[in-house]
Amino acid sequence: MTEGATQPATRATLEDVARAAGVSLATVDRVVNRREGVRAKTVARVEAAVAKLGYRADLAAARLARGQTFRFAFVLPTGSNSFMTNLTEQVARTADWLAGHRGFIDIHHVDVFDPDVLAGALENLSPAYQGVAVIALDHPRVRAAIDELVARGVAVVTLVSDAPSSSRVHYVGIDNPAAGRTAATLMGRFLAGREGTVAVIAGSLSLRDHTERQFGFHQILSSEYANLSALPVIEGRDDSNRTRELTAALLARHADLRGIYCCGAGNRGIADALEASGRAREVVWITHELTEHTRRFLVRGTLDAIINQDAGHEARSAARVLLAHCSGEPISPDQERIRIDIFLRDNLP
Amino acid sequence: MTEGATQPATRATLEDVARAAGVSLATVDRVVNRREGVRAKTVARVEAAVAKLGYRADLAAARLARGQTFRFAFVLPTGSNSFMTNLTEQVARTADWLAGHRGFIDIHHVDVFDPDVLAGALENLSPAYQGVAVIALDHPRVRAAIDELVARGVAVVTLVSDAPSSSRVHYVGIDNPAAGRTAATLMGRFLAGREGTVAVIAGSLSLRDHTERQFGFHQILSSEYANLSALPVIEGRDDSNRTRELTAALLARHADLRGIYCCGAGNRGIADALEASGRAREVVWITHELTEHTRRFLVRGTLDAIINQDAGHEARSAARVLLAHCSGEPISPDQERIRIDIFLRDNLP
DNA sequence: CAATTTTTGAGGTACGCAACACAAAATCTG
DNA sequence: CAGATTTTGTGTTGCGTACCTCAAAAATTG
Question: Is this entry keyworded Transcription (chains A, B) (predicted)?
Answer without folding.
Answer: yes
